[in-house]
Amino acid sequence: MGSCCSWLHSLSIMLAFLLLPTALLLLLNPPPPAHHQAAVDRRLLPRRSPETASRAAAAPSMKRQRNQMPENEIERELSRARAAIRRASAGRGNATAVFSRPSVYRSPAAFYQSYKEMEKRFKVYVYEEGEAPLVHVGPCKNIYTTEGRFISELEMMSPDSGRGLRTADPRRAHAFFLPFSIAQLVRYVYRPNTHDHAPIRRFVSDYVDVVSSKHPFWNRTAAADHFMLACHDWGPSASRANPFLYNNAIRALCNANTSEGFRPRKDVSIPEINLVSGEMPADMLSPPPLESYPRPLLAFFAGGLHGPIRPALLRHWKGRDPDLQVHEYLPRGSDDYFSYMRRSRFCLCPSGYEVASPRVVEAIYAGCIPVIISDDYVLPFGDVLRWEEFSVKVAPDDIPRLKEVLMAVPEEDVRRLTAGVQAVRLHFVLNHPPKRFDVFYMILHSVWLRRLNIKVAEL
Ligand SMILES: *[C@@H]1O[C@H](CO)[C@@H](O)[C@H](O)[C@H]1NC(C)=O
Ligand SMILES: *[C@@H]1O[C@H](CO)[C@@H](O)[C@H](O)[C@H]1NC(C)=O
Ligand SMILES: *[C@@H]1O[C@H](CO)[C@@H](O)[C@H](O)[C@H]1NC(C)=O
């Protein structure tokens, strides 16, 4: 019960209380219990929690800030950032010094500048409405790790310091985050085995109604500066609950399937990360130098028969060829699983029930070149990263020729791609607290780029 991120959440509550000006407020506003056992219906309508009420009380300077930050100041800031990025990409910036391998970026100078502009200017307002465990927290282990960790990390950042990414003053915000967790809604609101998404959509629709009637910001841009994030397969479906959320808002999704309405210019593809225990595996946190691993195996895959692509992979390759280790089942996170990945040059990442696969990130952690086998999948951070510098794409129709295709990659390309994998690793790592250029900030940077409405790749 409760959320796997409850340790993170309790920490955030503790921090919030440490920051409170008087002990009186603490007495008046006890923290909400970490584990909600009450019937789901009672929670369907988002409410203001005692915790958030006290947070608002702790922001006395809001009125003053409001007057200093009229709406068009936000627009002026965005255009200053755009101008700086254009200048940098025109040659007056030097990202070569910062990035270990500039060739993995579409435009290293533009990316580095847009990242610095984000650090300098970007402010996110997180709506306070709603309560855990449906809003403000998420699962922090297994397949929905990215969703839970993003929501929890953002919640834990103090909005009051004026320096960080979060702001307590929505008038200073460039983006507004809707902090509900689709994975938590599936867990607590969905009735198992009904395949009925309606209760989840009802919650999302109610949530949007509350924030759009209580605050002026949703209507001001018809949701274009609002964003949600979901790793659960039902994220796209849940976002259909409100037409503005679906059509105008920025949807950060693991399930970035263009056939399901994912729009690369507006939406954000985020990597799926599966932390079995909620922790980064120790040997992934500090991997031995890649060169010290001989890679005697050509390729590796282990996984279930999910979805349209994997049956072909298993039919053609399971148990067929010792160079291509294709298994139907190997315990995830087991020593075997990662050891196969570290002994393989290529790690196969076919779509399962949904386009994204946590294998892409696992391969990157293991220094193994991901082989993307999917249709309609928009790869994460693709507007910044040059995926062709650290992965290989194989069309599902080429599965019967897989060995031939991979054998045909020249030795020198294997070395280039392996070095690329090593260079992008930092962008896929979860840190607590988040670190510069890690997956948390890369997700935010993708949202920032969409607010700038700029494509660094085209500069
Ligand atoms: C950029 O930095 C690199 C490494 O410090 C240096 O070798 C290169 O000359 C610099 N390029 C420019 C245009 O300043
Ligand atoms: C935003 O628009 C909706 C629908 O038109 C309306 O019901 C709501 O009251 C508006 N919100 C505000 C704060 O004016
Ligand atoms: C992508 O979306 C289409 C349309 O809903 C669906 O048919 C397809 O199976 C999806 N792909 C995956 C891998 O789920």
Ligands and ions found: 2-acetamido-2-deoxy-beta-D-glucopyranose
Total of DSSP H or I helical runs spanning 4+ residues: 19
Q: How helical, in percent, are the residues?
A: 40-55%
In the residues, how many domains can be counted? 3
Going across the biggest sheet, name each strand in turn: 1-2-3-4-5
- The beta-strand count equals 10
Largest sheet: 5 strands, parallel
SSE pattern: HHHHHHEHEHHHEHHEEHEHEHEHEEHHH
Sequence stretches where pLDDT stays below 50 over 5 or more residues:
11-67
Q: Indicate the structural class.
A: alpha/beta
Radius of gyration: 22 Å
Shape: globular
Average pLDDT, to the nearest integer? 84
**What distance separates the N and C termini?**
48 Å
Strand content: 5-15%
What does this structure look like?
The chain has 459 residues and is an alpha/beta fold. The chain has three domains: 6-19 and 123-275 and 434-458, no CATH class; 77-117, no CATH class; 282-428, Rossmann fold (3-Layer(aba) Sandwich). It has helices spanning 6-19, 23-28, 50-57, 62-68, 71-92, 108-121, 145-156, 182-188, 198-214, 217-221, 235-239, 243-247, 282-285, 310-317, 335-343, 359-366, 402-407, 411-424, 439-452; strands at residues 124-126, 175-177, 226-230, 250-253, 268-269, 297-302, 324-327, 344-350, 369-373, 392-393. Helix 7 links the parallel strand 1 and strand 2. The model is unreliable at 11-67 (pLDDT under 50). It binds 2-acetamido-2-deoxy-beta-D-glucopyranose (NAG) (3 copies). The site of one 2-acetamido-2-deoxy-beta-D-glucopyranose (NAG) has 4 residues, from helix 9. It is found in: Golgi apparatus membrane.
